[in-house]
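Figure 2 data, in text form.
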Amino acid sequence: MAKDKPNPQEKPSLEIGYIKPVKIENEMQESYLDYAMSVIVSRALPDVRDGLKPVHRRILYAMHNLGLRHNAKYRKSATVVGEVLGKYHPHGDIAVYDSLVRMAQDFAMRYPLIDGQGNFGSLDGDSAAAMRYTEVRMTALAEEMLYDIEKDTIDFMDNYDGTQKEPKVLPAKLPNLLVNGALGIAVGMMTNIPPHNLSEVCDALCYLIDHPHASIDELLQFIKGPDFPTGGIIYNFSEIKNAYATGRGRILMRGVAKIEEDKGFRIIISELPFQVNKAALIEKIAELVKVKKITGVADLRDESDKEGIRIVVDLKRDAYPQKVLNQIYKNTPLQQSFYVNMLALVEGIEPRVLTLKMFLSEYISHRKTVITRRTKFELKQAEDRAHILEGLKKALNNLDAVIKTIKQSKDRETAHKNLCRKFKFTSKQAEAILEMKLQQLAALERQKILDELKEKLVLIKRLKSILANPRKVLEIIKNELTELKEKYPSERKTRVHKGKVGEFTEEDLIPNEEMVVTITKGNYIKRIPINTYRIQRRGGKGVVGVVPKEEDVVEHLFTSFTHNDVLFFTNLGRVFQLKVYEIPLGSRVSKGQSMVNFLQLAPEENIQAVITISDREGINYLVMGTKNGMVKKTRLEEFAHIRKSGLIAIRIKKDDELKWVRGICTGDEIIMISQNGQSIRFAESDVRPMGRGTVGVRGMKLRKKDEVVAMDIIKKGEIKGGLLVVTENGYGKITDLVHYTKQRRGGIGNKTAAVNEKTGHLINAKIITKKVKDLIIVSQIGQIIRLPIKGIPHLGRATQGVILMRLSPGDKVTSISLVEKQKDR
């Protein structure tokens, strides 16, 4: 570096010129900033107006100039790459071709802008074929990006060598940035904008046009969240809202997987989170199985085809299916986060993080400019044409004089001057008259000129009114968005889960309807609206209520409202919890879905008792009973927080199992009924409160070959009620509770029914109160009958009852449920 300052009087050397001393720190800083801005503006970040980076814009413009419309013949990708490189993009061919390939991938772009023919890669990470093998043309949506480009709607600039013109931005009738999203890494900043559903974005834009001060909550009524091309599920509405409100955030994505049973359990993965490599996912699962971080997997295979993704994970016999699926979610890319950073170039030069509303507003502003410029262009063309037509009309009105003037002129130039001087035509009008063909002198042709002039004058008036009224410009934007939505309808691919993972949507969004819930012995569950079953007279045969699997029977049936909590108690003494609306909705004859989809049940574990809690106030305890007559009372608060893996509710002795659980209050009574027709009634105070991990005390002493089949609660003050008993052969009756004397727990009890070969053993019993309206009975083969309670006779304790349901040969009653009178809700 020279230390001496140059002499101003000294002439510069022809070889060197002046030597200017600079500090290397300043030079590095300036050079780096120039480089950074070049990368930011000219390569890595999309323009908020059309959502494109320069390379993507140049590809589409080159294809437009090549005439590669959506209905044109395909051309080699190499042709397009060559056109882009030669005229607009002075970089490597790989960069251009890679960008072109991504624009054609339906798993990378929510709405591909290029229609590709050939191998354009796959979800497994396979590369596209070389550009000499693949062929391309634009999609119809890509043409919307260039719509009206020839009408002076946008500015053009010189290309890199000044020999061509290229657009600074596209007119973008399609709101491409939100619809297709963007990913880019610049210097010191990056952008990661998720794709969205076109219909939702169009609706939000139309709403914002009508309501310029709309809040983010109002806009989110239309845009539910990102809509990824690979589908999947996104969670946590509050995080989605935060990302849209601030321009930055985290959105949790999950692939879609379900548990199926077919000679064992297996997990079927049918959708992946956005940008997840399928082959890498399978490899990751296999690796984690090998190191035993994922347990219970017997086999893993990829059955995907052109119809869609299908990854099959076969499970071992002793595996917990839901537990294995949770391990896959936790340890593999089947669950991962999308980090939103909504950074884009505003006015093509300023990188800025934008909120959802700002994105929509910038797009509307761009379209206002485009439509205003288009209207001015069309107005100028219409005025120019009207000017010519007015000259032709004037010439036709003075046809003979005009012809005479032209004939008397020695040449074209003289004729042009004479027309302007004599008839006051403008230069353009005179030129048009001289070029007019003789055929236009015919009457019909003359009328066409007059009609066209009339049309142009109407058009000019309409275009001027648009320019004079900004609201009309906005109406045009709305109409074009509506047309776009109708022309390219698309269903949402990505489902939005309002709650966090493991949580559920707000109950206010779900109708609180009464449901019938059935659970089979094989642990299949479903819910059906109560009005599916019509009321019949006693002694009827009923209707088919479920078609269970072979050797499977309906074991539990109860009614509850969708907002209620349901506690599921298993034969091993564990308890799980679900909401009624989380139980899958089925048809009348469907078998339902396996409980392992919802609860982490062991292979030999079955649901034995179910209790619904709609109002926890007034219920102090849960009382539990086993088939061997044990009874236990535990405070309800101990079941307030039940984790997904369940809790221990009661410790079960060998050869015993938990059968019943009921809510109970201070002052209530407990009644237990055995299959051979014995019953015992005692006060709840005879059973002291115990913790969850205890066995309980004896409630009923049983004779040999007898076991408890029912346990129910007599509410305080409801002594006027009755006890309904039903036998396995369809017999039943109601006996008034006054006939049952209160005893101390632990006794044999009193006779409650005459059990014989004709009636079969008792299978269940229920307390009947004034609130009870109907009885539902389910048979072993799935027949269901619904009876009005008032039609069942009241008989003594030692009677056998009457036929309530006629059964087919070999069929047996398996369960019963009561329907209460419905209150106004």
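Caption note: Residues 245 and 327 are 33 Å apart (CA to CA).
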